[in-house]
């Protein structure tokens, strides 16, 4: 986040921010990204459109930050002492109901990126990049502990494997994402590919 | 394909079918799935809407079959004698230009499935299921040759890993899909996860 963005956002309280994000997520569930308007957000949260644009700059940034606010866990803070433990802790950080709800929202946004270049940019910068960085820290600690070779060729692709689990669960299996599926995927695919 | 569908489709020549599919793909590139109309397909191909509906049943089926007609290789026909060879042959079956073009179309359709239940159904039945079946044959031959253990826990997830490569290449790396990336992904992720 730029210093300017921090200063912009610091003008509202965390409670008010959470309230606004909640309203945005409700609207995203109701009408999807393309149907979301700043007018509707302003009306539902009794704020002015000017305030919304001043604080968030764009509908794309507001939507992505609202979705990101749902994350319970910063990946880079997960440090159980083993890579398997770290992955399982990450999987367990959301219960199944919450995971299905959030993944539907995430899919909705990820789908809309292709028709909306500014959303594509916000999604990559504010949602994907921090996860890639956080996952990189988790993996680096595994390398430092000697669990994974520093030159293991699967290291740059862990995020690809994980995204595959999210997308294919719906598209191939036609089943909801849940903890037991993700745990099995981590144990069956991600850890073996890393030689753990 | 049902016998009824075969009989429906057999009324037009393969050349005419290819011409129709080409027009549908052009329109998908120009206006996307949501913008595609049977009127536009009829106009561009000088056919009647009644003919289109009789032959394909729905816009969803027509779009998915048009995309599927682009596949150069039936996965289950790939049989080089080794799993690594099979995967590389599959990767090499499309040149880089074609791959980028097709993956953009495929992404477009895969994205639209979430707002269109009939497209979701057609996409899963006519696009995903045959690939899963074909990949299953390739993997079964590797098991029969003794390359992969029959109880290898990554076997049900190969399609998830591959879909991850397709989706994340754009979303995470922001780079086009190509043969060298896919070859590296197969060698770094898919084969190691399978213990090959």
TrEMBL record, chains A, B:
Domain of life: Bacteria
Pfam families named among the record's database cross-references: TetR_C_11 (PF16859), TetR_N (PF00440)
GO terms assigned for molecular function: DNA-binding transcription factor activity; transcription cis-regulatory region binding
InterPro entries xrefs: Homeodomain-like_sf, HTH-type_TetR-like_transc_reg, HTH_TetR, Tet_transcr_reg_TetR-rel_C_sf, TetR_C
Keywords from the named record: DNA-binding, Transcription, Transcription regulation
Gene3D superfamilies: Homeodomain-like, Tetracycline Repressor, domain 2
Positions of the HTH tetR-type domain: 14-74
DNA-binding region ranges: 37-56
Name listed for the protein in its UniProt record: TetR-family transcriptional regulator
